[in-house]
Amino acid sequence: MRMTKRNYRVLPLAFAASMATVWGAFAQEAGTLVVDTAFQLKTADPAREFEPTANLVLHPVYETLITFKGSDLTKLEPSLASVPTISSDAKTFTFELNPAAKFSDGSPVTVDDVIFSFNRVKNVKGSPSFLLDGVTVAKGSKDGEIVLTTEQPDPGLPYKLANPALGIVNAKVVKANQGSADEGADKTDRADTFFATASAGSGPYVLDKFDMAAEVVLKKNDAYWGAKPNYDQIVVRNVDTSAQQMNVMRGDSQIALDLRPDQLDAIKDTAYTLSVPGADVVFMFTNSNPEISKVAANRDFQQAVRLAIDYDGLLEIAGEGAARPGSIIPTMFAGALPTAEGPKRDVEGAKAALAKSGIKDPVIELTYVSDITKNGISFADVAAKMQADLKEVGITADLKPSPVSTFLDNYRAGTLPMTIVWWGPDFPDPSDYLLFGPGEKVGLRAGWKEGTAPEVAEIAKKAAVEIDQTKRTALYDEWQKKLNEQGPFTSLFQPAFSMASSKTLEPVEYNAMWTIDLTAIAPAKQ
Amino acid sequence: MTYLRKSWYALPNLLRFVVRRLFVGALLCLGITFVSFALTQVVPGDPVSANLGDRAASDPEIVAAFRARYGLDQPIPQQYALYLERLVHGDLGESQQTHRPVTTDLSQYLPATIELASAAMILALVIGISLGVLAAIARDRWPDQIIRVISLAGVSVPTFWLALVTFYVFFFKLGIAPGVGRLNPGGKAPPSITNMFTIDALLAGQWATFGIALSHIVLPAAVLAIYTIGSITRFTRAAMLESLSQDYVRAARAKGLPTRTVILRHALRPALAAIVTVAGMAFGRMLSGTVLVESVFSWPGIGQYAYKSALALDLRAIMGVSLVVAVIYILVNMAVDLIYAFIDPRIRLG
């Protein structure tokens, strides 16, 4: 269009009209839920994701065979399938698919879709592949029956299956978009590009927009086979923690997921606040491998360190809502040990243990991650507090800050004499923590070799295969008590998960698996 | 050979200048690929640890698949040779953190930053030059003193702090600025042409989207502009003072030309050469230094992308960002030299 003088005269009017629309648009659209979080997100492909934000946004899109309700991670609930029947040897798990289940394109969810989805997770060899290590999936003898078999007894398997990474995808759609579940899918599957633009799940929402730097938009699945979703649209935005609180207070968003405990006071009058222990456990270890450090490997020295730490002081640093588990399993999981069972500060006892060790004026390197925080808690603060505690009993800790990228290499190689680190659960079952045993993956990082604590290993062996829940919990209790006595690990605290939600919503619950259940959020009742 | 030389010198000076600068620029880019590649290799830390989950990083099969997918299983010289070979075809490799081609990532994030930096630059030039001229005219009087304080504050205030304070005041307290991001939550972006939302919305005639995009850019652009306003003000003042003391300015005044004409046509024009130099450097600095502003205003630009890439040891992304920023620096510098010739005809290019 050629611009005439008349056209130019119209421009300011058009500009004014557009600005008026802008001011009007500041108001939130009804039917839209806006959630702010600092993204930890790499992909929208369930078979390749293993990040907290991916769990949050993919849980409403891809349903799993079984699920959890609310914040309870100890009780399995049916989803696409029934709660499984488990064989007495804990090697065979039988599920029955719900015949009503449908994908967003209206096609039914079948056993073939389940087999495709699980084999794809295994064969693309992404971060969640380990969840199905040693698992074979097959059709059962009846229609809609799925049978999972494991090489080793694995009573914790059903708890892994609720992970959104094991969400069931529409095999036909994914195959049509360069997806593969065959051997070699790590080279041939290119469906991650498709998953960034669309979805192929059976959940109450479908993916409308996936911008991993800015926002993920979910749209109501009109063909959903269950109860109708509460919102037409859910927008999950990538927002720096500094702005999240203000956004909720101004009504620009309804939920802020990454607040620090100290921010909650300012917002509690205008929004619901929640500060509960998160599922990550911050722990320390003194390396049991004398080749790494003779000082750290000394059992009496380890005991002196354990008794020297002011656990209550550390909990204060962690802030309101943080908790201290009795051992390595976090408080919300079955098998968690009460706080009272954990080590307690005893300065005189620490001095006596140090004297018994025969090490005079010990000096030890204490390494910590310097460039990230855990739920707002700086590891530098934790390390400084521990340094002061150790000084009181005569141990000199040389603080060694390290960027996370180099820290992880050294930590995993087992070369750190003493460190503060954290463990986030891979799945909500105590069996995830058996890795802390002697000769196991995390145990080896602390120099705890196989055969050095046969009693601990023996209890772990029994706990790994026990399917009776009461006996299982008792075994994990016993295992952790021995771990506290004989192992190089000491759990310090679980950082608090602190969030705020608008009073225009019903109060929101925390779930350690997907942070919050977006499908369960509802407007406040009038 | 003689023919080539004759043909070369037969070309217009300007064209010879551009061709020469582009050739040197290409060599410079090659050097930058080498330096950035070497740096990513010497940084302690393994991309496997930074990108795979704890369990996956301990599984040799998964680690092998990861290394194979990103070419990390090749010898280092071969990795570099392969990178260059792909680069010639416009392929910057695949990002380990986004699982997408780096070119796709850059085409999404770079326009967001260019849009932000351009808006900031326009603000900085308009305000900085105006304040600088005013300060020079009112030398050592109260307007000059006030402007000196303003420009000093501009270059001294920490950007992150300023971003938080402006967001608090204009969004939270006064409610006259929109929230974070480039558009309202869930807002539809205009049809993608440049990926700069204000421009794309204008091109598509989507006035409402244009207004929303413009309202979202104002605050972060203003924060980003503050430092540059300070430096442009100071340089303009100094250059104007020098111009105003020249004989030809005195002659113009003596001839009875209006003050406005003397200032704008006789004094400001020669001063512009210095201002253009500062502006060119400032634009490059803005492109590579927006991370803090992008972080507070949740602006999905190249600054945040670079920061996250560095944390994840995403080698291809780091190299892609380095290369693109270098190319922009080179182009901006060339543009500055060309503008010199336009501003001051005495300058000969070639």
Automatic annotation (TrEMBL), chain B:
It is a multi-pass membrane protein. InterPro entries: BPD_transp_1_N, MetI-like, MetI-like_sf. Its main location: membrane. Gene3D superfamilies: MetI-like. One of its GO terms (molecular function) is dipeptide transmembrane transporter activity. Residues 110-340 form the ABC transmembrane type-1 domain. GO terms for cellular component: plasma membrane. Keywords: Cell membrane, Membrane, Transmembrane, Transmembrane helix, Transport. Pfam families: BPD_transp_1, BPD_transp_1_N. PROSITE patterns: ABC_TM1 (PS50928). The chain crosses the membrane at residues 21-43, 116-137, 149-171, 207-230, 271-297, 317-343. It is found in: Cell membrane. Belongs to the binding-protein-dependent transport system permease family. This is Peptide/nickel transport system permease protein. It comes from Kaistia hirudinis. The lineage of its organism: Bacteria, Pseudomonadati, Pseudomonadota, Alphaproteobacteria, Hyphomicrobiales.
